[in-house]
């Protein structure tokens, strides 16, 4: 039997909001303000732990589902989150120039008010960059676009012209794996209101 759920998104990310809207899901943003310092070095386990922490940090007092998500870029055994400043953004882009990196997004579906256990998973996509010139890096960083994005780039913005290819879910690279999220919701017999 399918259930009806009110949905909360434990993220202020405009990209995640856009993806949920594309899925036809009405939702409310809840402030998570979760501590994102976790010593985990495995990118898949890290994003799962962070998505769980974000979902659990939302204080909601009604039957609903809270969606928590977190995204990182992994390259050469390094985890790249959001850049600290412009120099950090440039460092990340130089590192990824001409390379294949992996984007991991962890998602937690936290069910509140019905004793249903939370569900957590992650999705991985590989992204192939063109070789970037210093001028291209400088111009992109000067635009401000990379500053709130894991790996210092957004695939859906002006940086798309530098992406040679993707192996996996495009929306995962944006910050929420639409196909896997939809399948997981179907498995959990979720209908949204």
Quick synopsis:
The chain has helices spanning 14-22, 43-56, 86-96, 134-142, 170-174, 178-187; strands at residues 3-5, 7-9, 28-29, 64-75, 78-80, 100-112, 119-129, 163-167, 190-192. By secondary structure, the chain is an alpha/beta fold.
Name some characteristics of this structure.
193 residues, alpha/beta, seven-stranded mixed sheet, two-stranded parallel ribbon, 6 helices, 9 strands, 30% helix
Give the N-to-C terminal Cα separation: 16 Å
Shape: elongated
Radius of gyration: 17 Å
Low-confidence stretches: none
What's the overall average pLDDT, rounded? 93
The main β sheet shows up as: 7 strands, mixed
Strand content: 25-35%
Helix content: 25-40%
Query: What sequence of helices (H) and strands (E) makes up the elements?
Result: EEHEHEEHEEHEHHE
Q: Which structural class do the helices and strands define?
A: alpha/beta
Counting DSSP E segments of at least 2 residues, the number of strands comes to 9
Tally of helical segments:
6
